[in-house]
Amino acid sequence: MKNDYDILGEKIITLSGGKSNFKSVKNCMTRVRITYVDEEKVNKEKIEQLDGVLGVNVADTFQIIVGPGKSVKVQESINSLLGKLDDNESEEEEKGKKNFLKMLSNIFVPLIPAIIASGFLQGINNILISNAKVTAMTQQIAGTDKLTPFQVVLQQDGLLKISTLLGILGDATFAFLAIYVGMTAAKQFKTDPILGAALGAVTTLPSLSILGLTPGQGGLFGVIFGVWLMSKVGIILKKIVPDVLDVVLTPTFNLIITGTIYLFGIMPIAGILSDWLIGGIMYLLENTGIFGGFVLATAFPSLIATGLHHGLSPIHMELINSTGGTPIFPVQIMSNAGLLGAGIAILVLTKNQKTKEIAKGCLPTTFLAVGEPTMYGLVIPSGFGFITASLGAGVAGALVRFFDIKSSAFGAAGMSAIPLMADGKYIQYLICYAVGVISAFILTVTYAKVRNKEL
């Protein structure tokens, strides 16, 4: 018996011009991303009207928004119905003409689930530790030979092992980001993933100090460039190493050659560039204040709508890797608050029953985690709602910079982002979020009333 995802998959295939029109079908958190042979054969309007489809965005790929959790199931159903598609990239991508932002997205997007999970657990643990530190100070609790004062408090409350477990699981992603990036970059550049991971691991070793280098120097961008070089060296070695010795000599020589160039060339140069990048971003944020927060947050819905927000993933990671937190992400996710406020206003104002049904499915998802369903299902179709949502996000973004909120990780937005806020600024985050929702709601309702807009 067919499930709902198989039925939706069949309808998408039919409205896409049939099985022969598909090149590849992939997914991200909320969207099914399809590359077609001929996009003119695709009935975009009919696909948008399908039950379960929240919207369609055409960018570098044809993106069908179905919501978090559902995207992977719809993608799997379509691929199953199509049979095994060729996973190789297009000829243009094979020749290295791929869009730079898309390349970065392909490297970093696979890491986002782990970052969300570890960041969320880290956030919960930060709450436990912060409360324990306050208790230790107020009650003047002393440490022991093995435990710090706050660990003594956690032990007394029966939470020390839980806190330790959360800390280990939280650090599991961030302590080894360079290794994971090395692996995903290797897959992107079509070289051995484990060799790519090994090159990433090189940047984490304490013995680098003997060579006059610092662990982490060069950051994640340095790792990406190093793995790209590794892919080129690998191609050359494949041509000159005899087949009988390939399995031993090719990876060995590749790691020696690439590793040496990486350590003495790429790491020092990438370290300087990385320091400039981080310094420039921090200077901009620290010197533009609430105005910069307003401008950035107002722009983010447009970046999300076009998929360009994925280009910020390496910047977030670089900031977290080098400073322990990113001040950009809390500004970015105020777009979620603006979308929620505008979406609620549309739900209140509309008399269209289908719009109401879409709103009931979109808004809880946006409140809890991601804004795309509301963006494509409600806000963009309304026209003016996208502008009022962006302005509402801008007001919240200005407030984020006023409170100087940073996050220790990045991933989902809405209420899921609360534990990600650094320095215990959970209440400040909620205040900013509420202000964004209210601002967007008021702006949307006011504009609709003044201009007599029907939804």
From TrEMBL:
InterPro entries: Glu_permease_IIB, PTrfase_EIIB_Cys, PTS_EIIC, PTS_EIIC_1, PTS_IIB_1, PTS_Sugar-Specific_Components. The keyword Transmembrane applies. The lineage of its organism: Bacteria, Bacillati, Bacillota, Bacilli, Lactobacillales. PROSITE patterns: PTS_EIIB_TYPE_1 (PS51098), PTS_EIIC_TYPE_1 (PS51103). Keywords: Cell membrane, Kinase, Membrane, Phosphotransferase system, Sugar transport, Transferase, Transmembrane, Transmembrane helix, Transport. Residues 6-88 form the PTS EIIB type-1 domain. It comes from Candidatus Vagococcus giribetii. The chain crosses the membrane at residues 103-124, 162-182, 194-213, 219-237, 290-308, 328-349, 386-405, 426-448. Its main location: membrane. The active site is at 28 (phosphocysteine intermediate). This is PTS transporter subunit EIIC. Pfam families: PTS_EIIB, PTS_EIIC. It is a multi-pass membrane protein. It is found in: Cell membrane. Residues 115-455 form the PTS EIIC type-1 domain. It comes from the Bacteria.
